[in-house]
């Protein structure tokens, strides 16, 4: 009998302790693509987020509190992403969510606003940067539109023949991600004197881009920009090589990276892309902890710029959690308010310094262009777009 | 104690529920379903709602493919038509849900019948490809008719409401979905006791014989496309209300494949099969996800291995069912039920 009482007492004590331990936890939701269409970049990103959370927990946490990352794979399927969101918010009671794709971010933007749930995602659509419309959507790198503007500026500078304007073509998919920067690109090209001569639509799974490329050749484009991911972009590059085109290629964040060099090999030579995060292992101040952590925890894996991107996200929102926690406001509106106090918050070179304000959620307008030179990603140039108020949301 | 299955009157032979016990059991099950929201977490409410929508859609597909023998890959498209018409009717025209849902169903039925016209001349794989065209036509329209569909960014759908009451949230919506699903299931079950239903089955079994017997094959094929699309359209309409915002990314071709998977696994030509299949295919990823989620703390490495399992399990389930139970879960259910019905004296 005595033993039973002691056991019950111990159990109760244990539960009490466990209860207090849980109170010191901050629950953050994660919605990743590990198996879906974009898993080639989604998986390293997810690993980056997980590792960065583990690192944060080992290094002081959020003012001593631990982050509990509750994450799952949604396979890049919108309904499953929505279901996962509901589970994270209503059952797991997370304070914010680290999300992923364009489709689910778009589908959830109204719900997120209604629930006042800070939602970080890897969809850099400029229309998510207008807090008047999407006050709870955040991302860390420059928007797709700013990336395209920076590339157009580079085109203008790179073009040596002053007798006429450079001619460009846009390649994009017929979906929200593909079309996102196109209108901004059209306007900006006109503004700075670059002639947009052709727009070509890429299907979801590109097996062959010959017909689009022949079209483009006919229109005489000197440069072309692709708003698509690495696999279709490599197909485009392969077919361009086959046709012997001399067009200079540009691409967005998801088109360039270590993966492009691995897949497209020598066809990737000369490609210019807006890469917001340096390749893994680049010598920047913030990289040291990544490399060390990586060596300790998965010595046999290789990781890329997407892994770095995952880390950069976590660095931004852990800082916001710290500030919100200090203010005693660890909830949706509190975290949003904390995020909006970030001014040029330095990420140690892992991504551009981040600023959010109450009426402007553009994290940064600085775009870093990289070029593939001799099979390596080489930093080419950095452009800063002006923070024009009329460009919010475009 | 029963020791055999004796039917003494035509009435008994035609009965949907053979015993009073079965009827009681069904009533109890429906009551239990009605009280489910009191116990389910909001995540399970979402899953339950998606199951109900999938049941309606799978029943629709089963009417066409399982009962009439016309294979269709256009189901995602018809789902989209239902969803977008609801977005238009309820959003733009401010119509209440009890108008919008049937109207969306009828509109989809119309679209379905247009795409069903090739079935007069095409059969089997050729028809599948023709319906596949429907998918791409609708997908293209959805992403380019910006003024109606909102283009690639999607369009939001207001919550269903009646008077001052709003079906906001999954718990409320469930009470809209459940009656609609039950009603449609009963209709489908009864449909195959009528002349029309029998004509469908006759076409499936042998279209030439059916024609010889005096069944107007073209008329009934088209009718089957119409009824089936009506179901799928209603499912799309419910899906629109549940999702709140719809875009072309909600209706990829994989949705059509999943639904074919549902009726193959559940049982072609069986209403019960549509239910089983829809439940199975909708729950499979969720359960695997919860399973891997529970393991992720202890075996973080395993999660990366388990995650792709869902796709594999889907394929494996279809192959195993085709091999060992071509008539689906419904057939297995009947075997089990018949065994117990006459237990212990089965002769």
Helix and strand topology:
The complex is a heterodimer of chains A (394) and B (347).
Chain A: H1 2-23, E1 25-32, H2 39-58, E2 66-73, H3 78-91, E3 96-98, H4 102-115, E4 119-120, E5 137-138, H5 144-158, E6 167-173, H6 176-179, H7 182-192, E7 195-202, H8 210-219, E8 223-227, H9 230-242, E9 248-251, H10 258-264, E10 272-274, H11 287-297, H12 305-326, H13 332-339, E11 366-373, E12 376-384
Parallel strand pairs in A: 1-2, 1-3, 3-4, 4-5, 6-7, 6-8, 8-9, 9-10
Antiparallel strand pairs in A: 10-11, 11-12
Chain B: H1 10-14, H2 20-35, H3 42-67, H4 75-92, H5 97-116, H6 124-144, H7 146-149, E1 155-156, E2 161-162, E3 165-166, H8 169-191, H9 195-205, H10 207-212, H11 217-243, E4 245-246, H12 253-266, H13 271-295, H14 300-306, H15 309-324, H16 328-341
Antiparallel strand pairs in B: 1-4, 2-3
Helix pairs in contact in B: 3-8, 3-9, 3-11, 3-12, 3-13, 4-5, 4-6, 4-11, 5-11, 8-11, 9-11, 12-13, 13-14, 13-15, 13-16
Beta strands of chain A, count? 12
Helix and strand pattern of chain B: HHHHHHHEEEHHHHEHHHHH
Helical segment tally of chain A? 13
Number of DSSP-assigned strands of chain B: 4
- Distance linking N and C termini of chain A: 72 Å
The parts of chain A where pLDDT drops under 50 for at least 5 residues are: 13-22
Summed over residues and divided by their number, the pLDDT of chain B gives a mean of 87
Taken from the alpha-carbon principal axes, the silhouette of chain B is globular
Helical proportion of chain B?
over 70%
Q: How many DSSP H or I helices of chain B?
A: 16
Percentage of residues in strands of chain B: under 5%
């Amino acid at each position: 009998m005595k033993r039973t009482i002691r056991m019950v007492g111990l159990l109760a004590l244990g539960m009490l302790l466990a209860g207090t331990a849980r109170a010191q936890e901050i629950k953050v939701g994660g919605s990743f693509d590990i198996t879906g269409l974009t898993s080639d970049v989604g998986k390293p990103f997810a690993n980056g987020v997980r590792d960065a959370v583990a690192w944060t927990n080992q290094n002081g946490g959020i003012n001593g509190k631990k982050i509990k990352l509750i994450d799952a794979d949604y396979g890049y399927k919108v309904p499953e992403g929505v279901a996962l969101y509901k589970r994270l918010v209503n059952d797991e009671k997370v304070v914010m969510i680290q999300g992923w794709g364009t489709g689910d971010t778009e589908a959830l933007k109204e719900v997120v606003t209604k629930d006042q749930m800070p939602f970080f995602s890897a969809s850099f659509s400029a229309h998510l940067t207008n807090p008047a419309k999407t006050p709870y959507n955040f991302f860390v790198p420059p928007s797709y539109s700013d990336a395209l503007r920076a590339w157009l500026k580079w085109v203008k500078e790179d073009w040596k023949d002053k007798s006429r304007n450079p001619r460009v073509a846009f390649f994009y998919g017929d979906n929200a991600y593909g079309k996102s920067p196109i209108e901004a690109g059209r306007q900006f090209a006109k503004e700075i004197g670059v002639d947009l001569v052709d727009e070509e639509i890429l299907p979801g799974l590109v097996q062959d881009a010959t017909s689009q490329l022949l079209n483009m050749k006919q229109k005489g484009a000197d440069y072309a920009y692709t708003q698509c991911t690495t696999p279709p972009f490599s197909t485009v590059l392969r077919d361009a090589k086959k046709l012997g085109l001399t067009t200079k290629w540009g691409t967005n964040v998801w088109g360039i990276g270590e993966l492009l060099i691995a897949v497209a090999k020598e066809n990737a030579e000369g490609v210019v892309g807006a890469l917001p995060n340096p390749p893994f292992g680049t010598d920047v101040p913030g990289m040291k902890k990544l490399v060390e952590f990586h060596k300790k925890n998965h010595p046999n894996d290789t990781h890329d710029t997407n892994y770095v991107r995952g880390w950069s996200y976590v660095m931004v929102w852990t800082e916001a959690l710290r500030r919100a926690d200090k203010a005693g406001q660890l909830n949706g509106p509190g975290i949003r308010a904390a995020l909006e106090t970030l001014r040029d918050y330095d990420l140690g070179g892992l991504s551009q310094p981040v600023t959010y304000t109450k009426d402007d959620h553009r994290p940064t307008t600085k775009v870093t262009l990289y070029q593939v030179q001799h099979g390596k990603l080489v930093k080419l140039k950095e452009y800063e777009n002006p923070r024009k108020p009329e460009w919010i949301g475009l | 104690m029963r020791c055999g299955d004796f039917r003494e009157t035509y009435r008994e032979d035609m009965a949907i529920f053979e015993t009073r016990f079965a009827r009681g059991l069904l009533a109890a099950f429906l009551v239990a379903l009605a009280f489910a929201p009191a116990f389910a977490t909001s995540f399970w409410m979402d899953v339950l709602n998606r199951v109900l929508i999938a049941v309606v859609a799978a029943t629709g597909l089963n009417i066409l493919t399982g009962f009439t023998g016309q294979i269709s890959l256009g189901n995602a498209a018809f789902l989209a038509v239902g969803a977008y018409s609801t977005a238009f009717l309820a959003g733009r025209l401010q119509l209440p849900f009890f108008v919008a849902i049937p109207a969306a169903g009828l509109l989809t039925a119309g679209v379905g019948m247009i795409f069903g016209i090739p079935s007069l001349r095409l059969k089997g794989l050729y028809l599948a490809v023709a319906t596949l065209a429907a998918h791409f036509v609708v997908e293209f329209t959805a992403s380019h008719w910006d003024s109606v569909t909102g283009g690639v960014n999607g369009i939001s759908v207001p919550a269903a409401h009646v008077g001052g009451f709003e079906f906001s949230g999954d718990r409320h919506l469930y009470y809209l979905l459940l009656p609609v699903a039950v009603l449609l299931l009963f209709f489908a079950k009864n449909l195959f006791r009528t002349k029309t239903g029998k004509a469908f089955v006759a076409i499936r079994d042998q279209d030439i014989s059916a024609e010889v017997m005096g069944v107007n094959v073209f008329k009934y094929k088209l009718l089957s496309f119409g009824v089936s699309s009506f179901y799928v359209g209603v499912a799309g309409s419910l899906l629109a209300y549940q999702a709140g915002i719809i875009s072309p990314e909600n209706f990829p071709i994989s949705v059509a494949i999943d639904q074919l998977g549902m009726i193959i696994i559940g049982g072609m030509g069986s209403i019960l099969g549509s239910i089983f299949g829809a439940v199975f295919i909708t729950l499979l990823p969720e359960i695997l996800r919860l399973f891997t989620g529970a393991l992720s703390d202890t075996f973080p490495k395993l999660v990366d291995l388990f995650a792709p399992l869902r796709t594999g399990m889907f394929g494996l389930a279809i192959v195993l069912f085709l091999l060992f139970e071509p008539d689906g879960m419904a057939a297995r259910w009947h075997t089990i039920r018949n065994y117990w019905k006459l237990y212990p004296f089965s002769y």
